[in-house]
Hints:
The complex is a heterodimer.
Chain A: H1 2-29, H2 36-39, H3 46-56, H4 62-76, H5 89-124, H6 129-143, H7 146-160, H8 178-212, H9 215-222, H10 227-264, H11 270-279, H12 283-311, H13 313-318
Helix pairs in contact in A: 1-12, 5-6, 5-8, 5-10, 5-12, 6-8, 7-8, 7-10, 8-10, 10-11, 10-12, 11-12
Chain B: H1 4-33, H2 36-54, H3 56-73, H4 110-146, H5 148-163, H6 166-177, H7 183-192, H8 196-209, H9 213-220, H10 225-233, H11 238-262, H12 273-276, H13 289-316, H14 318-323
Amino acid sequence: MLRFFLKRAVAIIPLVLLVSLICFALMQATPGGPVGVLTDNPMVGPEDVARIRANFGFDRPVIVQYGLWLKRVLLHGDFGHSYVTGEPVIEMIWQRLPATLELMGAAFLLAFLFGLSGGIVAALKRYTKFDSVIMLVTLFGISIPVFWLGLMSMMLFTVKWRLLPSAGMFALGVPFSVMDHLRHLLMPSLVLSLLFIASWSRYMRASLSDVLSMNYINVARAKGATRGSVVFRHAVRNAAIPVLTVIALNLPALFTGSIITETIFAWPGMGRLFYDGLLRQDYTRLMGIIFIASALIAVLNLIADTIYGLLDPRIRLAR
Amino acid sequence: MAFSTPVLDSPAKGGSRRAVVVQTVHPLRDTLRSAPTRASRGSDHNCFSSALRKSPLAYAAFIVMSLIVLGAVFAPLMSPYHKDKIDLTRQYLPPSLDHPFGTDDLGRDIFVRVMHGGRISLAVGFLAMLVALAIGVAAGGLAGYYGGWVDAVLMRAVDLMLAVPVFFVILFLSSVVSPKISIVAVCLMIGFTQWMEVARLVRAVVMTTKEHEFVDAARTLGLPDRRIIVRHLLPHTTAPVLVAITLGLAQAIIIESGLSFLGFGVQPPTPSWGAMLQNAQSYLSDCPWIAIFPGLMICLTVVCCNVLADFLGEAMSPARRAAR
């Protein structure tokens, strides 16, 4: 198992390198290159630009620059300074990361619990009214764009029924309380998770239905295993494997959803930071966030792979 | 058997030597002819319409989707108002007979804008899917047919694209290009991030199909690789690819609307469903119709695509067809 894990861990290194190469190429592609913003400033003459370029090493060959940039990023976590605020990018991200992880974690948890249990129940009651209702609800769940869902729930729960706050992580001017924080978290995390609840339960239903029609399930039943044991010990364990693939593939979508959700609900996380950076064309910040997000996805994929190996001995023994 | 007849009557005309040639060539052609693509082409169509009638949900989706497309096509004929006509005496009107979907902050008729928005959103979706289809089929076809390092390189590219939060990259690129981002650029960017699913499917089908005898036959006939891939292998990918691009169309529409909603896709005053929602958040409490209708259209379209994709997948899976 350890060998399998290490193999997978080593495999993400070229992936992260490639992502960094893309980030760096994007940075070079910005208008005017890395000093593009300065050339717009009337107080900065061409000779100043040349001096700044020399100072930062931008006059050296691109490949050398890439090497230096990568060294700074990997060894010191240094993504440079924000064009707009002058703060180190890594510190900006570091401040916002916990809020994003909290939101995505909550959404993931909701999606995992409701998605998988919904799928299991639907598969066990296949072709009943209950199943059709779940399938219809999840059909809409996978079809509603997250920003519209956000707007609609804000319209109903905040504007109309005045049940939940529409923005931020805490109520202003009130001492911190866990309840208040959870109230702020509830709507964004539900909005972010609905797509995943719906899609994972559909996959779980399909996968579990397939598994339940297999011979070894009949054998387990014939041996006299209880219904619960057949479903949870024999079937769900195998049915979860393809669903896990889908979950791992959905990780980038979770980040995408978080940009939009955080923007709508003014959640002070990395997505919001990214959106602000877009509006102000703060390219160093954007690059830093893309890199960190990709690295996070790579690590989460590694975890998914590991669980994959734990669930399915064929995978961990084959390679 | 097709190849036995020429052998019987050839000695009378051209002697045994020619008969041998005929005999060796014909089984090959025969195999080529019996390749499943040719044989099943005619019956697929009938299957489709009869299967559609048997599935009420898919039938409904088909009709609604047709209505949305028709509405988009005939948008200018549907209402006396112009899509960009600003009328400050008619701001914030709730839905009424005059304005079925109400009017927005500049007094523009939302119904007309939603219909026109359908043109943009559907066109962006279709074009983006065409881009994705072209890239995906090319990458998948090459990877599946040649294998080896071609396959390795292309599949690593797929893995990479699947592991990067591509929406961030699209947003970044649009912010580099903005504010003058063109609709074609939006289509291209979405297409470049949606081809992986198609590539994987095509690769898988090509890899299994190329082991069949008729491909050996085509090679023996000396057909160039390009022709073998395009004419003999790619047709087999039609069914799964059709499903994938129907789902992909839905995805592309959602991505476009998300980009435009954030202000980095289709630019105002051009109405796309997402762009119409851009300022809607400010008017949620007083004029919710500004936010409701464009989003409803996105949902309807995407639901229809998803239902049709499910339906196509079931209608075209060989197991199902055999069982019928």
